[in-house]
């Protein structure tokens, strides 16, 4: 009995100790970054408030994915930071977790309460970003944008609309702009020459001409090696492992539009029960796959692998950004010095080139957090980078550090590298030349590709959804059926299911939350028109 | 092995399957080695090769010239050495008293140890802990979480329980203090289990990168496996992060495959050289802590 009492007393004492430990406060203020400063060699001081009036630099902590495995702390790529700091009287501290763990660290940082001043989110519909806005962790920046002339001038209008996350007039982030384009196709010009296929002067082909070219690339030995070892087109799967159709806009698919004749005012061809557009899109890819024109590895290749197979001379056409034609040509020359590339567009049903572009022109957003003591300074940094002076720095780097001028041309040093850091903060929406990396393109090269890039920009038709995700899309049964949809439509493209199955698949989609989805999306689009 | 004329059909199938499985397991290694010793154009021509073409050490020269590789190596070595040293010390001073049957509360303490093996605070509480201790972005954050595990403690305790008490009593009779008994009698007799735990712990620290993903922000504190992970995943990240934007996929720093594979070999070679000699100790070590008849 005494033993039992003693044991009970010990257990209760241990439990009491645990409770006392758990409930005791921490002597360290969680908001005091001194503890973190002691442990971090990356920090250049504590996060104390600095009096800007006395001319002391304002410290701005920026958390982003700009760290690269290749960029040490003292790399010249960080040289531009000194220029920005001097120009704006700021002290920029970049918190750059490893890219593979960025989202984990971002999530932990957001819930820890120890917030940097600026945080990068991968997209404007990222779950963490939306939650952070809802929780008040991210602050609206409308007041600070009034003085940000460069940001307003060089970003898409619809990007700002997409950043009104709460549905009111408050803007919650700065967009990292990516130029909306209707990308065409990189094509083996030497194969065209070998087969006597003329290169159109306006870089445009009809669907029939394009299809014929693909067939000839597959069956007519375009490389002249006597072997049946080529395919016309190399497709790939996207990040969600969904096979990308060969033609979409070229068959009349322009994203969310008022196509007319549908059950709803605005629709996506996938879900339009009165339209053949999506069936045509699936059918075109299916026919190419069945006839052996589509690279049989397409359903398992990602974009990089598809690109490699193109560079190996296995495929003759890939959809790609026009700015990478030269890069691909240089890669091809390692195996085949005679290879030549050109860039083509395929006309749509109305005989003109135009393409539906999804998204909001945004590739990631910079959000100012509630911990920022000088949010206006943070906005000023991004605004400065889009000014003429800052943009020159972003686009070309620094004379003396990254390049020297010789006979009026920039000559880059090997140490300049890709200038990854400075070129991935902000971009101008009206400067597609940005994507022509200055270390890779001479002016002559730029003259060649510029018309293609401009055509891709001019023929872009923006999808009216603007990247919006209605609440219905987050319902479990909708999300579950999305997986089924992806699987079944891919099987249709691969010929595993007949095209007639598309109707029942659509009907099931409507039953699994699709109806609510369409209604909410229509309401949203109407509100933006 | 039986003489050839005594090989049965079953033996032939058996050996055949073993050879096939072995080749399947060796193929990735051969491919990585071959590509790392080939030129990039040779890789593009045939990415699946198992024999180098246009033999070249250029990828190794370039990889070995990267300062971040050496800083990562140094970080990993520091973390591994510190983790092993302090971990073993902790195991010794904890397992020894727990191996004594007369220790009051011993059973309760062992229950607590086993409990800690089954349940963990989780990622978020651990992150908070590291932050409150001021250990974020430090190498200590890579050492501490794996410093002490219940499993290893039980192995050492079980081994120490089998050390004859008489040896310790004899030492005490001669005037030895407890620390003397521990470090001059018990520890030398525990060399097999200490060596085993050194091995286990060293391999665990060497291979771990998840703690670095959570706690490290500075490139100069990356351990080797994190650096390797970043290199290898850069291509995948380019594809997923660009979210279908073909222009943005080119915005990423992606190393050519020859360089990636050279990085894999550079990271693997030390372990490859050491592991075959230590493999038998792994198996032996697991058994050391088991109950003896």
UniProtKB/TrEMBL annotation, chain A:
Residues 30-54 are annotated as: Disordered. Pfam families: SBP_bac_1 (PF01547). The keyword Lipoprotein applies. Residues 39-50 have a biased composition (Polar residues). The keyword Nucleotide-binding does not apply. Keywords: Cell membrane, Lipoprotein, Membrane, Palmitate, Signal. SUPFAM superfamilies: Periplasmic binding protein-like II (SSF53850). Residues 1-27 form the signal peptide. It comes from the Bacteria. InterPro entries: Bact_solute-bd_prot1 (IPR050490), SBP (IPR006059). This is Extracellular solute-binding protein. It comes from Paenibacillus sabuli.
UniProtKB/TrEMBL annotation, chain B:
Its main location: membrane. SUPFAM superfamilies: MetI-like. It holds the Pfam family BPD_transp_1. One of its GO terms (cellular component) is plasma membrane. It is a multi-pass membrane protein. It comes from the Bacteria. PROSITE patterns: ABC_TM1. Keywords: Cell membrane, Membrane, Transmembrane, Transmembrane helix, Transport. The chain crosses the membrane at residues 12-30, 73-96, 108-129, 135-155, 193-216, 259-278. Residues 73-278 form the ABC transmembrane type-1 domain. Gene3D superfamilies: MetI-like. One of its GO terms (biological process) is transmembrane transport. It is found in: Cell membrane. Signal peptide: none annotated. Belongs to the binding-protein-dependent transport system permease family. This is Carbohydrate ABC transporter permease. It comes from Paenibacillus sabuli.
